[in-house]
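hey can u run this one w/ PRP bound, need the C-alpha cells asap thx
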Amino acid sequence: MPNLAEAQAIIENSDVLFSAEEVSAAADRMAAAITEKLGGEYPLVLSVMGGAVVFTGQLLPRLMFPLDFDYVHVSRYGDKTHGGELVWRTAPKEDVKDRVVLVLDDILDEGHTMAAIRDKVMEMGAKAFYSGVFANKLIDQAKPIAADFVGIDVPNRYVFGYGMDVRGIWRNLPEIRALK
Ligand SMILES: O=P(O)(O)OC[C@H]1O[C@H](OP(=O)(O)OP(=O)(O)O)[C@H](O)[C@@H]1O
Ligand code: HPA
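ok here u go:
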C-alpha cells in the first residue's frame, strides 16, 4: 500500500476525466436504461466485489422495481495495473438457477472478468444474463463480451475513482481520474 505522500503524489500525477457531476448523470442514464429493460423481470443483481461497491451503492437506489441482491468476488489485477490470472474468491450461489441475472461491475477493461462470470452464471442455469459496467475502456483488442449497459466510455489509460483502485487505494473518489 502506498504511504501518505505516495497516495497524494498519485493524485498530483493524474487528470480528472469525469467530474462527480458527470458520473452522477451517467448513473442516472444507466438506471433509466436498466429500468426500461429489466423493470418487469425481478432480476437477481450480483455486484462484483470489490470495485463495484461504489457504483452498486449509487445505482441500486435509482432502480425503483423489485430485485434480489447478492455479490460475487473475482480478482484479476490485485494491486497491479495489468490483469493476470482470474481468481474466484466468492462464486455465484445456486439461486442463480432460472433467474434473470444482472451483473454489475465498475469497469470492463479486457473483458475477461465479466466473460468468466457470464460463463459461470449460465453454466449454473440462469435464465438470462445481463451485464452493466460503469466504465467501458476503449481498447484496441476485441473483448470476449460487450456490456449490455454502460455508463461511460473511458480511454485506454489506467483509470481510478468511483470504486476503481490504483495500487489498492483511491476507490473512494467521487470522480474518475487517469494516471498521466
Ligand atoms: O475486464 P477485465 O480486464 O477483466 O478487468 C475488469 C476487472 O478488473 C477489476 O477487478 P480487479 O481484478 O482489480 O479486482 P478488484 O475489483 O478487487 O480491484 C475490475 O473491478 C473488474 O472486475
Ligand atoms: O483501468 C483500470 N482501473 C482500475 N481497475 C481496473 N481494472 C481493470 N482495469 C482497470
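The mean pLDDT is 97. anyway lmk if its weird
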